[in-house]
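Sequence only, no structure available. Ideas?
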Amino acid sequence: MKQNKQYLYEYLNGKRIRNLGFMKIEESMNKSVVHLYANEIDDVVGIVFRRRNGEKYMAGWEENLLVKEEPIMDKIDGDAKIEWQDEVQMEIEEYITPRNTTYQKIRRQDLSRLPRKEWRIANNSFLLHGYYNYNHLLYIEEDGETWIGVPGIFHENEQEAARSFGFSAFRRLVNNEIELEENEKNTYEDFGYWCRQIPRT
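Reply:
I predicted one. C-alpha cells follow.
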C-alpha cells in the first residue's frame, strides 16, 4: 500500500498564513482512503478531488458548495461524479495574524530553565511517558508566552490523558521547523506535541 501525507494550509491573497492539519492518503490497487486531521475546521460542507487528467470529483452535503458555475452531474454506482466548468472559489473571511514563534528541542534536564516553582513538571507522568518514547521535549516561545511540548500522537484517548495531566493543546509542526532523528518522531501517525503553557513569573 502506498501512503502519502499532505499538509493543509490556510492562505490569504496567495500568502500562507498557518497550518491547520494534514491529510493522509493510502492507495492500493483498487481504492484510495483519505484520512483528514484538522484543527479549527468544524464547518466542512464537502470535499473536492482533482485527478491528473483534470477531472474533478466532489462529495458535498450542503447545496451551493462554493462553485461559480452549475456542475455537470453523473451518477456512478450511487456516487455523484461532478465535473466543473470553472474553478472552485474559496474565500477566507478572517485574517489570522502570524505569530512570532520559536521552537527548541530540549532534554528533560533542560526544564531547569523554567521558574523554580515549575520544576515539578519534570516528574509529570504524561511528560515522562512522551519523553522516554521520543527522547526529547519541545520548548516553545510564542508572543512572550512559554509552552512545553510533549511529543506524541493525536488520538481521542491520548487527548483525554493529556488534558488530565495539564497538556490540553495539540500542535503539529511543518516545514522542518525542528530537526528530528528517526527515533524522535513517528512518520506513520498524526505526530505532534501536547502542549502546556508555563505561567509567567
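The radius of gyration is 21 Å.
Hope that gets you unstuck.
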